[in-house]
Amino acid sequence: MNIAILLVLGLACAASPPAGPPPAAPVVAPAASPPAEVTAAPAPPPALPPAPPTSGPTTLRGSLAHEASGAWTLTPCSGVATAVSGDPTSALQGLGAGPWQVVIDALPGSPVALVEVAYASPVGDICRTPLPSARGTEPGWALRWTGSKGTFETGAQPPQTVDTWTLGPGPCHDGAAGAYYHRSASVTVRGITYRGCAIVAFPAAQQ
Prior knowledge:
globular
């Protein structure tokens, strides 16, 4: 009987697998997450164009006054009165106490910066004077031009078209008209040379 019990126990031990580490748990891969949404960065704003160069002189005309405070004020033919920086007195000598009809070349701003006095007179209406132009006396004549073509007039002859004239340095004074010009001028028509004074305006918009 004891032998039978021992045989049964031996068979049970032989049938049982040897003890060992527990089997590893199965590896479960994590669920794939949905792809992240990619938002494109906003496009940079377009580059600004380069700043335009500083404006050059422009031609202004109108009435120039010297205020009691010492300031200079120009009332242009179109627009409102504006202060003028600079000293135009050298061009105004002998032309009275003002105000003066003037053509000036100036840099834009507030105040406008005087570059040159092109014309000054205590009388007349400069707003009605063609620019650019030239004139003289004894005998009286006038020349106005656009580009390379000019129109020459005297009191005794009808207007004539000319394509040659000469501008010289100034200042130039028209004693008969009591006016200052910044340039001298001459033109030859039918063999006769006429000499006088000229206003040469900048090509920028004239006011």
